[in-house]
Design a protein that fits this description.
By secondary structure, the chain is mostly helical. Helix content is about 65%, strand content about 0%. The chain starts with a helix and ends with a helix.
């Protein structure tokens, strides 16, 4: 992955985390600065990166969506399931980077989404396992290892095929039924 790809992922993660209230607006501005340094350069990103910490709280809401759009990135409302999944993936990447402990990741995911978001069901179950460790035969290290494996799975970004599959704009169900 190139530094510009990593910066784009980081910027998208910061947008999702900010939208969910996980990080501050000034952290989004910092990510915009990092993206510029990495080589992502658009007018909207420059404007966003130029905000001071004091301005960030007032301006990020209006400046972030167009800055992301210029890079082909998306900004979704926090209640949207795709936005929730983006938050989960961003938190998983933060855990893998060492910014969160495995137990903290499961706790935050379980507290935020319970057992309601299908993508996070295993993390919610693992959070429950942390709570009952003293009554079972598993260790913290074993559960940590499972959380890390799940975080790796979640953090993996789906790859877009180089060539479109089937008929453009038509779902796979149609393609398989029409053959």
């Amino acid at each position: 992955m190139t530094s510009t790809e990593a910066a784009a992922i980081a910027l998208q993660d910061h947008a999702a985390l900010w939208s969910a209230g996980e990080i501050s607006a000034s952290e989004v501005v910092d990510a915009a600065c990092d993206a510029l340094v990495a080589g992502l350069d658009t007018p909207g990103l420059r404007i966003l990166a130029a905000r001071t910490r004091a301005e960030a709280d007032y301006d990020v809401h209006d400046l972030l969506p167009p800055a992301l759009d210029e890079r082909g990135l998306s900004f979704r409302p926090a209640a949207d399931e795709a936005a929730q999944e983006a938050v989960v993936r961003a938190l998983a990447r933060r855990m893998l980077a060492g910014d969160l402990e495995p137990r903290e990741l499961t706790f935050r995911i379980h507290q935020r989404y319970g057992h309601e978001l299908p993508l996070t069901e295993r993390l919610a179950e693992l959070d429950d396992e942390y709570d009952i460790l003293e009554y079972g035969d598993r260790t913290v290290d074993q559960v940590d290892a499972e959380v890390t494996a799940e975080a790796r799975r979640l953090a993996a970004r789906p790859r877009v095929p180089a060539e479109p599959q089937g008929v453009p704009g038509v779902g796979d169900e149609w393609n398989s039924q029409s053959r």
